Amino acid sequence: MRPELRWEGETEQAEAAARAAEELRELQSRRTGEPIVIGNEFSEIRVCRVETRNGSRLLVESPKSGQWVALCPLELEALTWQNTDTFAAMIGHPFGPLIGAGGEGR
């Protein structure tokens, strides 16, 4: 018999994952038009427009990792303000923010 594995914060992580999954389902139900899939040998991304009570968002999903983000027009425009160094830093530290919750960078 295998021992049951538990860790500190397990319940909170499970609840956060359930909330995120529900939020994603809600966003997907508000999709307008067909998704666009873009991929190469490193990644595949699915994007679609979704309507929220605060206006349109672009839902960007990574089917492989399960990660997703819904960006408003201003957040999308902010991508155009960046240079290639910003994107290189993001790729160099995957699955996490460049700036932590306290405002400190990596």
TrEMBL record:
Q: Which domain of life is it from?
A: Bacteria
Disordered: region residues: 1-21
Name of the featured protein: Dihydrodiol dehydrogenase
Q: Which organism is it from?
A: Saccharopolyspora hordei
Recite the lineage of the species: Bacteria, Bacillati, Actinomycetota, Actinomycetes, Pseudonocardiales
